[in-house]
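Collaborator request, handled under Task 6.
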Amino acid sequence: MDSDLMAYLKNICVKNGIRVIFENRLSAFTPSSASLKARCIVLNMNFHNRKELPLQFAHEIAHVLNGSSYDLAFYHASFSSHSKIEKVANVGAVKLLLDYANSNDIPVTNMVNFMASFGIPTALIETVNETLGLYLSAKHG
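Structure tokens returned to the collaborator:
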């Protein structure tokens, strides 16, 4: 796990008044989560795939920054509305990682390398492809 990236994400939280609890006592398969109402993230530092932790952290930050009605998503949302909330957070997470890469001169033009560098699972390939395309268009447009 990249400590500079984690520090970058922590700094985003500090600047935006988001409290972060780095939890080490959860199951390796318990997902991290965010509460918009409490402006708080619980990041499972014991997660079984540690390479994904920066992505998870960025994802939870995006929930809070986007104002996702995430607190109620598990209890009241349909699958499709919950899926939309997650998609928006995934896009936000990818944007945060792209901003980090850009500010640290990390090349992002190769999607496969970008995903591997940031522990992004292949399940998010479409989201990364769309977000990266828009990012590169805006940067070079």
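The cover message to the collaborator said: "The chain has six helices and three strands. The CA atoms of residues 111 and 129 lie 7 Å apart. Please let us know whether this matches your experimental observations."
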